[in-house]
Amino acid sequence: MSSIGVACCQARLTVGDVDGNRAALERLLHEAARNGAKVAVLPELAASGYAFGDREEAWAWAEPVDGPTVSGWHAAAKELDLVIVGGLCERADGALHNSAVVVDAGGVRAVYRKVHLWDRESLIFDPGETPPPVVDTAVGRLSVVICYDLEFPEWIRLPALAGAELLCAPVNWPAMPTPAGERAAEIVRVQADAAVNRMFIAACDRVGGERGVDWVGGSVIVDPGGWPLAGPMSAPWTGCLVAECRLDEARDKHVSEHNDVLADRRPELYRRFVDREVRGHEAAR
Amino acid sequence: MSSIGVACCQARLTVGDVDGNRAALERLLHEAARNGAKVAVLPELAASGYAFGDREEAWAWAEPVDGPTVSGWHAAAKELDLVIVGGLCERADGALHNSAVVVDAGGVRAVYRKVHLWDRESLIFDPGETPPPVVDTAVGRLSVVICYDLEFPEWIRLPALAGAELLCAPVNWPAMPTPAGERAAEIVRVQADAAVNRMFIAACDRVGGERGVDWVGGSVIVDPGGWPLAGPMSAPWTGCLVAECRLDEARDKHVSEHNDVLADRRPELYRRFVDREVRGHEAAR
């Protein structure tokens, strides 16, 4: 297999400026295609923006999966021969989700709803209940999680066990104090997530302050060793970060002659002892 | 609670030179105490060295937990008022383990046997079958894992769920190619392990080439945010790395007003979907 271009479209977004956000994302999708990308990752809650005052406001900017934002991405995927993975403020019946869609020329291939909600998101969104989808595309086997999900290694194992070669992660990483000379903690965790699973990860962040929240702007594409192939960037940079990835390298889970990061797991021990700890934890409440 | 000194005693060791290795470790334990440490972590397989030709050779250098190496650490723990966590090539009945002991003035508090064996270790040692012990000491709640165990986040969750404040990790990190400007991958994973569990980790590495294997010498002590408090060091440095740690900070698992890194886990989802993936994996073999 030859390498393919993977892009993170790090956009400047504004809460509620759906038209402006869509236009900014479309420009970056064109830039991704011009730079040879076959997969383009967009930020979390890309068209709507993030810092909603409450559920009602988020509901007002939410769309169904067959709404104009994803329809636009489908048109772009066809025009530009891209697989697009982007974050969507999703209405589905009466539920409101922080979702991400995987779209290619054929249409919507998968919808993922964020399971681990960050901070005030738990007051706004309904959490997802299903695992990261794993999608066979023309360029490789992709999966998707969203932002805070990346901090739960048990969750990141699922797409790895299901054979994902590239994990696409729309994120909105809030800027936190970081010691001088250190990368943002979120980037370190992406590196570790990739390395312990031997898969590629493309995390696409955003920039643009919003109601007191600033973002890291730390988009990064890492290889199965956890090493950055492109980025990490930092705010206020916006643009299209592209890395050439040989996705088939993620199929080889060996890290020494006798070690395979997935086969070396001891799931029966994890299950037995985690169950014990979780029961103890629940009993202690 | 006030802070306590935590030390990593990064020694130069030689396979089979048990007397020389014990003496080097004892000097470093004295240095740790002189520098105010109350907890001292030693490398993996500290007295025996690492690069055994085969099981027979390892067996020859192995000792029971009541053998001279651990007895010496007990004497040092009493003399120096230290909790010592060190790696031991352990004989137990007919079994041979890559183990670590937790020793304080009262004696051996816990023995842990490495579960995830690295490379040729699987030809030499019997894997452990029990989780990292969690030990209440005079200075805080400690746990212990060994080297490659750190690459299995499911395993690192166990001591975190059991309330460990400081995870002590005797390691022998083999030097691998690392891109310019990057930390060794093992260090990045320690940072992530600490951050996703909000606990301190002290990883004590070694130096000294041995039968073609070189070590990173990357001892590091990280805080619950995953930030290095001391180190990471690099070979050929040897000595006593000390950090002041307020271990009670590891009891607070909040990362935002609405988030707690342990309470935010979705264990019922992990169990259900990991079981499905593992069954699929086994069926595919």
What can you tell me about this protein's structure?
The structure is a homodimer of 285-residue chains. With 285 residues, chain A is α/β, with parallel strands linked by helices. The first copy, chain A, contains seven helices and 14 strands. Chain A has a six-stranded mixed sheet with strand order 5-4-3-2-1-12. The longest helix of chain A is centred in the C-terminal third of the chain and has 18 residues, at 267-284. The radius of gyration of chain A is 18 Å and the shape is globular. Chain A starts with a strand and ends with a helix. Chains A and B meet through helix 4, helix 5, helix 6 and helix 7 of A and helix 4, helix 5, helix 6 and helix 7 of B.
